Amino acid sequence: MKLSLSVRIAEAPCKTKLNVPFADVVGLARELGYRAVCLRASAGGVQSPPVQLAAMRKEVQDAGLTVSMVTADFDVPLNNEQGPNSLRDIRPSLDVAEAFECDLIRVCMKTPEDIRHARNAADLAAERGIRLAHQCHTTSIFEQVEPMLSVLREIDRENFGLIYEPANLLLTGEPYGTETLQKLKPHLFNVYVQNHKLDPNGPVELETWCRGMQRFHHIPIWETGGVDFAEVMAGLQAVGYDGYFTVHQAYAEIMGPREAAVESYHYLTSIAEFK
Q1: Is the pTM of this model over 0.90?
Q2: Residue 140: what pLDDT?
Q3: From CA 266, how far away is CA 275, in angstroms rounded?
Q4: Which of 34, 90, 126, 237 could hold 121 in an S-S bridge, CB 3.0 to 4.6 Å?
Q5: Residue 100 phi/psi, 5° resolution?
Q6: Domain of residue 101, CATH code
């Protein structure tokens, strides 16, 4: 696997801007030994002029890194009702991916009606050698394992796959270990990791369609009581996953981006091998 650092570690809670310059995130990734950065619209996306994207691409390349995936607009990570709109016109997102020489775009789907748009978007993306992927995510049609597999079968495109994310599966009460990963293996395009500790009196709440509102704590990846990362790593090893493994934690409420990037790197490299 190859370690990637998401700009989300430096993202404001609104998910539309960074608390530090993009160059600082790139510099951290290079300094620590990450192989790539995961881009979100909070740093640059469909709203950004081409000259800005070109400058960002140069920063990444000068650091000897790549962009592992792009989330090209604000609505996809906000997972709101406008989230699927990019599937109806995927071209601007494809342009952002091409600007970074990246072949993977994160998308959002909320209803079965989005399936036909996903097929059309995947066909357009395939013409440019680009893949689309949906994260395991609450309040989406990728909230639970069996339904998401059904959706993937309906889309039926080789370049449309999945971003495995165990913390969201934890919130929905779904298993996320080896058995689940064996089912997801044919569709695995990326891995996101963050950590939640379930607590009925926790300070953070997130709606799920299958279990109602869930309350929890955002906790660092290395803290116990949330996702069992030994189980995650064992599952990924069992299915032979060798793609990008992205630190996706929202750390703004916990610590600064430098500490987050350093400690995440030290912890993950202590429990798994990365190349």
Answers
A1: yes
A2: 98
A3: 14
A4: 90
A5: -105, 10
A6: 3.20.20.150
Give tens-digit pLDDT for 217-240. Answer: 999 999 999 999 999 999 999 999
Three-state SS for 219? coil
Q: What is the pLDDT of residue 227?
A: 97
| Buried residues in 194-226 as b, exposed as e (16+ CB within 10 A) | bbbbeeeeeeeebebeeeeebebbbbbbeeeeb
Give how many domains the chain has, as a whole number: 1
* Residue 58, domain extent: 2-271
Cβ 68 vs Cβ 102: under 8 Å:
yes
Q: Record the tokens describing residue 83, joined without a space.
A: 């989230």
Question: What gap in Å lies between CA 222 and CA 85, rounded to an integer?
Answer: 35
Say which amino acid occupies 105. I
For 272, the token pair is: 């798994």
Helix spans in the chain (H): 22-32, 50-62, 75-78, 85-88, 91-99, 114-127, 145-155, 166-171, 178-184, 229-238, 257-271
Task: Give the pLDDT confidence of 149-169 residue by residue, as tens digits.
Answer: 999 999 999 999 999 999 999
- For residue 251, give both structure tokens: 């750390």
Question: 64 near 44, Cβ under 8 Å?
Answer: no
